[in-house]
Write a structure and sequence with these properties.
2 copies of one chain form a homodimer. Chain A has 480 residues and is α+β, with helices and mostly antiparallel strands. Chain A contains 14 helices and 25 strands. Strand 5 (92-97) of chain A pairs antiparallel with strand 5 (92-97) of chain B, so a sheet runs across the interface.
Chain lengths: 480, 480
Amino acid sequence: MPKDVITTRAKDYNQWYLDIVREADMAEVAEVVKGCIVFKPNGYAIWEMMQRELDNRIKETGHSNVYFPLLIPESFLRREAQHVEGFAPEVAVVTHAGGEKLTEPYVIRPTSETIIGYFMAKWIRSYRDLPLLLNQWANVMRWELRTRPFLRTTEFLWSEGHTAHATEAEAERETLMILHDVYADFAEQVMAVPVIRGLKTEQEKFAGALRSYCIEAMMQDGRALQAGTSHNLGQNFAKAFDITYTDQNNTVQHCWTTSWGVSTRLIGALIMTHSDDEGLVIPPRLAPTQVVLVPIYKNEAERTKVREAVARITADWKGRLRFKIDDRDNLTPGFKFNEWELKGVPVRVEVGPKDVEKGSVALARRDVPGREGKSFVPQDGLTERIVVLLEEIQAALFARALAFREQHSAFVSTYDELKQQIERGFAWAYWDGNDEDEKRIQDETRATIRCIPLEQPGTPGTCVYTGRPTTRQVVFARAY
Amino acid sequence: MPKDVITTRAKDYNQWYLDIVREADMAEVAEVVKGCIVFKPNGYAIWEMMQRELDNRIKETGHSNVYFPLLIPESFLRREAQHVEGFAPEVAVVTHAGGEKLTEPYVIRPTSETIIGYFMAKWIRSYRDLPLLLNQWANVMRWELRTRPFLRTTEFLWSEGHTAHATEAEAERETLMILHDVYADFAEQVMAVPVIRGLKTEQEKFAGALRSYCIEAMMQDGRALQAGTSHNLGQNFAKAFDITYTDQNNTVQHCWTTSWGVSTRLIGALIMTHSDDEGLVIPPRLAPTQVVLVPIYKNEAERTKVREAVARITADWKGRLRFKIDDRDNLTPGFKFNEWELKGVPVRVEVGPKDVEKGSVALARRDVPGREGKSFVPQDGLTERIVVLLEEIQAALFARALAFREQHSAFVSTYDELKQQIERGFAWAYWDGNDEDEKRIQDETRATIRCIPLEQPGTPGTCVYTGRPTTRQVVFARAY
């Protein structure tokens, strides 16, 4: 397998991404189903790791998993005015079933606020039924025109949370708790992807939300990727679906609801944050295989000797490390090294006859390719050393991604500076424009306001576009 | 909550089932989406337990998880003649998407042999690519006329395995390995449901299969429930989708493929095997909550004392037991006991002020309701005692279900005996009839041949219907 199967990032960033998806054998475009991909074992295994980590956090914060129907009566979508406007153009419609034309068509869920809202209205009677904290792992469908593996596909997999509360303050607390404690924590601690926590502008918010919050990450081409959203839906869906409760004073009130989601696009974010020109790089906490051990030998005698050492070395790995021993006979060590590099396994251990004699092994870090990342260490204490190394790699990947983001972020005070900076990455700017100003900037620069960061300097300045005084800063960027 | 919220089995078995589903808060019929249910937290949690156990077995036997598109081009379904005949009448069809009429409609997958076959043909080149062992967790849709929660719903959740092999023998080995080591083992060891492993007749086999194997369980009304199927698809799909490989002699050959599946109908099988007139009964290995502890007190002083004891008693439960402490303040102990009985938690621990003084607790087994299942035991050694008790309950539930099946099974040697026996349960009979004989019996008795058991007596006898000599026995029953 020649090294140049992967286009360099410098040469063609988009092609680099597609090459990684293909060469790490993560997914394949399903050209017979518009805009869909097949999740292959290496791609799906990462999603399973993500699911496990997210599911733990979702359950630990008091939510229960449920499953609602895939199909939604078409009329449900129309009940919330902003919602239908946002989603009607991109739904897939079931008009026939069981050999007959349906009296009312169904849409395949693009998201489930409407169908879940309908049932919440049936289930919630009194303040004692609140909060209602639900989550579902499901497939959803949005008929997108331009698609790209993981990042934007017509069908995708996701977790969608839906909750109902007695007061606006509680709904807001839930929305922000999910943003901070579940999504940002997962992105930074597990994916090693630094994110900006922020509020979406009116133009960018979810169709039907009062306020949308998001986490935004920077990819290696300087573009932004929205990695998760959490919406305070206010009473919009509660009014559309009549979700009410009787409070302590026996008065009937509308609930306040929230919804939030993260999807398989996170796999795209993972690839574009950490990978390099050699292939995929997976942070250890998400890696389905954290360590691959490659035995090296030239003849049967060496093989026996090496195999004994490998059994001894790996004896206490089970339960502590997720590992593979690559003892395929028909392939050279070099071929194997290359393959595992392409596939992003964080640590490689090599054991040859000389290592057996010396009581050592060679240890290679995927995040530092080539000689620099290779060391020769004793077999004694190896397991503990690898456990520590994996945490080092996890931290190093986060630090590298954070440094990259900082190097590609700048404060801009004029529209010209803004135009220049969005060619490089994130442009932080004071902002006091309106929706129309925002649209005009988007038309002229293809950049959008990614978010109004929750952490604000608080100092006064002047709006980058209108020149009006304001204390509010926003982040502009081109986005996936 | 009065006890009579659940209809007795003797009075109305079908209503009993629906009452359990409702009162244990497992699911709700989604009347706005034809034949669908909402999986509520208590129902979905059981599915998650099942998924974990099945997924472990599927992975341990060498399969990788993947995910293929929900939508299948309509023409794919037509490529295999028996397959289209079996599934075309019950598919849901997407004719419009993204605001436009599609040039070719898609069907929502009723099962994925066709779309996966299409990709297998692209991925498999040589014998080195075989076997290809895939599984996916997915939702599927079959437009059924008569539906019932969990047992038969238009949309359901399942695991579907799809594999490709070089030879018929290997495909057959895979088909039977899944039947025995994954499905039957899971049903008996985890669900505590005894099953008969058998071969389906031609009439009952999967649309497109060479041979279909199944596991069949007996419900408490004596009817059979097919709890899992494993199909040797022969070369039918390989020929329809051109799934070929080059063998060691450089000759191009068609592959042999298999498929197999278990679904959320297993939740229905679980309910109908173990539950009683008091509510749901869940075997400990599948119970999301294995133990509920109910503290009992009348005043603040008692409450403080009991709470201290509870903290001490449960100190080492985490990681060893899945448990809940029901310290809700506004409900009586009796109400709580009743609720957890309805919901099927295997073991209840009661701790009151007298228990604190005596250093004891009350222990109640869900599988033996009332006084008989209650004992008073020392707090010392309680955790170990509960761990052992849970395994005892697991074994007792299996033994009870097995005894029930044996009591409701009989060998029949005449058609009249067969007609009588299927009113009670399973009828074992010698069989040498043809497809038409089988259909006639079904029309006359509403019973079908559930399977040709893999374990056969091997002794000669005469066919229950034709009187011809044969050594083959089959099992007749009415089925869900």
